[in-house]
Amino acid sequence: MNESAEALPVSRSDYDVVIAGGGMVGASLALLLSHYSDQRLRVLVVESFPIAAVKGSSESAGSPNYSPSFDARSTALSYGSRVILEPLGVWPLLSQHVAEINSIHVSSRGNFGSTEMCSADVQWPSLGYVIENTWLGNVLLAQLRRCSGVDFLAPGSVTAISPKSQGVSIMVASESGSEEVTAQLTIVADGADSKLREQLGISTTVTNYHQQALIANVSFRNDHQGCAFERFTEQGPMALLPLTNSDRGELRAALVWSLSDQQTTHLLQCPEAEFLSALQQQFGHRLGEFTRVGGRYSFPLKLVQSEEQVRSGIVVMGNAAHSLHPVAGQGFNLALRDCVRLTQALTAAHRHGRYLGDIELLQGYVEQQLFDQQKTISFSDKLPALFNSKQLPVSILRSLGLGALDVLPMAKTMFVHHAAGMQYGAALDA
Fold first, then answer.
1. Residues 6+ apart with CB under 8 A from 353
2. Boundaries of each FAD-binding domain copy (predicted)?
3. Can you tell me the distance from the alpha carbon of 241 to that of 362, in angstroms, rounded to the nearest whole number?
4. 145 φ, ψ to 5°?
5. What percent of the chain lies above the pLDDT cut of 70?
């Protein structure tokens, strides 16, 4: 991979694909395109953050460094995502610093129903994995450095996209100025608040949940044993995802707690002891006593969906296409499956000499992936509402439903396959 903080390689201003956004989704797509085209596709990734700040790698060793931090933000990877990432050669490195999810315990505070899903139920090594975002990003970037057909411009930004009859003109700004590059296809992957999506006049549909997600890493007395917890309370859903131990050996989990604006404001500012007491009251004692909370942060909860995912020469992806409620941890996993489906379409088109920005080709990608998107978005959207309902009939059915999963193995297996994205056949043929 050619890296530049100043200008693009002189010999290359014409690309097959330009990816605006070099985060986890953009980097994953670049790796998939490079791998499954045998590095024949010419790809440019443009990222606003300096590559040195996100790479953290040793130039001599060519592999990323791991810098443990108690407060590191993390992402839940489904088992289906591991299946996607393994052929790219990144899993051996990633697995050095992941916490396995061997079971998922789902319960509703104040109701009798609960269920626990285990990897043994589906005969997988794990149901999923929790990985720190910085480590995931560093490993993806380190692997991209080995891809001869991929250029990476950081810091840089795509400031304008202008479709042409055959291709797209892209204005790219860097510290050395602006220049024009051309591509058959531009990927808009610059996040939920995408400026490029707005610039292109692509509207969004927004569902406001009128809650905040409070996120923090917490410590506790009892070993989590690889168990992830989904706890539904009258305040809102709460997820605790297992993490690797801190550099001081503390047991850790990543907390995502959905709360009202008022509750969030209070819990962000209150003393640590008061926060831990409130958490203990809502979660219970399955992990023993909570002993520490790290930095506390929050963001508004809303479902944002792009009303257009494709135009001629343009694809909107990642959070720019659909930003989900975090309760089920489906956002990045769905985006990764989108990347797989698009890679299938583009590499097949490239082999047959087809124009990669062809609208019929891109609409075919959306049509093939739409069922996965709709089911996953609906799952993430409806689950909190189901468990937040205070109506007695709904409460009873909810409790019975959780209990039924424990006595209906087929239903539990289907639920686990859905959560892992395995029923959609997301893996590519090598």
1. none
2. 14-351
3. 36
4. -60, -20
5. 81
Give bridge partners of residue 254 from the DSSP assignment: 217, 241
Region 357-370: mean pLDDT is 97
What are the percentages of helix, strand and coil residues in the chain, rounded to 5? 40, 30, 30
Question: Which residues, listed in sequence order, are joined to residue 220 by a DSSP beta bridge?
Answer: 290
| In the predicted structure, residue 397 carries a pLDDT above the cut 60 | no
Q: Confidence band (pLDDT; 50, 70, 90) for 389?
A: very low
Compute the distance between CA of residue 167 and CA of residue 312 in angstroms, rounded to an integer.
8
Question: Is the bond preceding residue 384 a cis peptide, omega within 30 degrees?
Answer: no
Torsion sign (Cα): 87, 92, 97, 103: positive
Question: Do residues 327 and 19 make contact, with C-beta atoms less than 8 angstroms apart?
Answer: no
Q: What would you report as the CA-atom Rg of the chain, rounded to the nearest whole angstrom?
A: 22
Quick check: 282 and 237 in contact, CB under 8 A? no
* Domain enclosing residue 140, as ranges: 2-71+133-205+302-379
Contacts of 377 (CB under 8 A, 6+ apart): 303, 305, 322, 324, 334
Helix (H) or strand (E) holding 146: none
Q: Does any domain span residue 384?
A: no
Distance CA 253, CA 245 (A): 9
Per-residue pLDDT, 71: 80
12 phi and psi angles, rounded to 5 deg: -135, 110
| Amino acid code (one letter) for 373 | Q
In a domain, 29, yes or no: yes
25: CATH: 3.50.50.60
Task: Name the nearest CA neighbour of 302 among 232, 212, 214, 177.
Answer: 212
Report the sign of the C-alpha dihedral through residues 258, 263, 264, 266, in that order.
negative
The pLDDT of residue 52: 55
* The total number of structural domains that make up the chain: 1
Residue 50 pLDDT > 90: no
Residue type at position 203: S
**pLDDT number for residue 173:** 94
419 exposure class (CB count in 10 Å sphere: 0-12, 13-18, 19+): buried
Reported as a single tens digit per residue, the pLDDT across 166-186 is: 889 999 999 888 999 999 999
Report if residue 386 sits inside a domain. Answer: no
- pLDDT mean over 344-352: 97
Distance of CA 64 to the CA centre of its chain: 20
Lowest mean pLDDT of 100-114, 239-253, 337-351, name the range: 100-114
pTM of the model: 0.88
- Regarding predicted confidence, which is higher, 27 or 166? 27
Residue 107 lies in a domain: no
Is residue 34 within 8 A of residue 41, CB to CB? The reply is yes
